[in-house]
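May I ask for an example protein's residues together with how it folds?

___
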Amino acid sequence: MNGRVLVLNASFEPINVCTERRAVVMIFKGVARMEEHNGHMLHSAKISIHAPSVIRLIEYIHIPFERRSLSRKNILLRACGIDARSCSPALARRRFDVG
């Protein structure tokens, strides 16, 4: 049970990625429904279920939008991913078709 599971909001928006174990707990608690399974089976003493690969929350959870300041660092982070130091401004311009 070390697979990764995509968690969707009730409106099918992606929220997070969690472990199979956490996803199964959420399904049994009634917090989420399994939308897709990956074909593997999880077995216990009494039941066997498909291992989830995508779950959807039953109730809509409001995720507040994080407002980022407009700075050179944040623009490069958005353009190049996690490591802004390895990204050149020319690469950022190509990704956003600017100039």
